[in-house]
């Protein structure tokens, strides 16, 4: 997804008051601002929803974990996000995507600025263990709850109303949160999978041209450790540059 286009008139009250020359002068600026904001927020929501589905993918892993460690029924967590946190906390550090901690730190820094800029409470964050492997998931839960519960700010155009620092940080936070969400999807799929068993993969195995052979030889589970380091990613074109 590259762009969500938002017309300036959808977010302006100027239609109620008639037009003047300055309204039309501001149209292009509002178009750009709200389209960029909607793109960043929509991309974040899309990837966050994918992460939520990935939590459900490992539901059975938590049930097995609780049984294996003898966790009493009344102490077991119920939310899929909390189950995933318990599981991620126990993954060996060598089985995490490269530079995951760096991505977590980027989210932490922008989130703390976001809390300060908008004078928010952050009691939930004080309960998180910053040294734990599931710390990043806790940060993502905080941001996700703000978006899901309608508390996330719809930013005014800073070219007209100021607050450019707040705008830049919110954009950065959405970007880093989207990236970290994708990396936790990689983490879960890297550690909990049954290999490639889809019909599409079996079809590719039977395609005896250069592209099909290269795909099967190089599309390995361990690619999930590094795929986020390669910019654009697609198996629709040669993948040698992505896995080499």
Structure notes:
- The protein is an all-alpha fold and 244 residues long.
- It folds into 2 domains: 184 residues, no CATH class; 45 residues, no CATH class.
- Helices cover 59% and strands 0% of the residues.
- The protein has 11 helices and no strands.
- Helix 2 crosses helix 3, helix 4 crosses helix 6 and helix 6 crosses helix 8.
- The radius of gyration is 22 Å and the shape is globular.
* Count of runs of 4 or more consecutive helical residues: 11
Say how many strands there are.
0
Q: State mean pLDDT (0 to 100 scale).
A: 84
The tally of domains stands at: 2
Radius of gyration: 22 Å
User: What does the overall shape look like?
Assistant: globular
Strand/helix succession: HHHHHHHHHHH
First-to-last CA distance: 26 Å
Proportion of strand residues: under 5%
The major sheet is characterized as: none
What low-confidence regions span 5 or more consecutive residues with pLDDT below 50? 239-244
Which bin fits the share of residues in helices? 55-70%
Structural descriptors:
2 domains, single chain, 11 helices, mainly alpha, 244 residues, 59% helix, 0% strand, globular
Task: Give a brief description.
This protein is 59% helix and 0% strand.
Task: Write the SSE topology.
Blueprint: H1 21-57, H2 59-68, H3 80-88, H4 100-117, H5 123-126, H6 135-148, H7 158-161, H8 164-191, H9 199-205, H10 210-218, H11 240-243
